[in-house]
Amino acid sequence: MQLNDEVVRSFGMGRVFKEKQARVNSLDFHRTEDLLVTAGDDDSIHVYNTSTGQAQRNLFSKKYGVSNICFTHHPQAVIHASNKGSEHAVRYLSLHDNRYLRYFRGHTARVTMLCMSPKTDLFMSASLDRTVRVWDLRTTQSQGLLQAPGQPCAAFDQQGLVFCIGTQSGIIKLYDVRTFDKGPFETFTVPDLVNSAMAFSYTKFSADGKLLLAVAERNIFVLDAYTGGLLHRFSSGIPDGGTALEATFSADCQYVLSGCEDRCIRAWSTLTGQEVAAWKGHAGVPTSIKWAPRRMLVASACSALALWVPNTSAFMPQQ
């Protein structure tokens, strides 16, 4: 089935998981396996099989807490930040035996973002200490440190060759992974945020590398990844100063999706900039959302996790 506006409008909740009352603070799909992992404010980690729609494993990190969870390349290993204590280490966890493999120490304040390179064992962490660190899963030694004003965020492109760092005042800097210590090779500024204290909380490259998504409070910007030109601006409707909600591209890059203040998931076209759909069903504001890399499947979460799928029966030929 090819994705289009009609198919996007047909999406509905195929499965809902309400194992807990605490907020799901992050979620991630594995790039090649049919797996989804979530982290909760109740210190829980849940693993789901997206092929069967079944919960597969539940773990807990009661000592450290868990946030910003993401898969490594191995389907039985994740990295996550901590939301308890003062150590602020990033932790590398084996899901197979619930054992920590490594601790990545260096940040002096809460880690707010983690992202894994799609091609190598590199990953990045951003922190309230106003730094972005580059790491390699194979060693606890930081591979690089970049200073960034405000609360930075970062993302790799889908080839693993470039990464961006978003900061305050609408500034996004692009770095070559191989020579990032030499500084950015390009700097973009989103005009709407010039001289603003508003910081980017989330950035993401589209799968084809042509678009860059950047979220700052209620604002969801779609930029040309080559020129930095502003293509579209959407709104999640959250109040000024409110917690920014995650946004995501569809697998084919034609749509941007985000949770919104009215508890809907909204989808906008990256071609026209028009709103295409508003999916209803969440009891709370969905703060986390991802589109599965290899399926027509979306995961979103407030305190409950929802898996959204298209209504395929609506597109079956009539007998």
UniProtKB/TrEMBL annotation:
It is found in: Nucleus. WD repeats lie at residues 17-58, 104-145. Pfam families: WD40. It comes from the Eukaryota. GO terms for biological process: RNA metabolic process. GO terms for molecular function: chromatin binding. GO terms for cellular component: Set1C/COMPASS complex. Keywords: Nucleus, Repeat, WD repeat. Belongs to the WD repeat SWD2 family. This is Uncharacterized protein. It comes from [Myrmecia] bisecta.
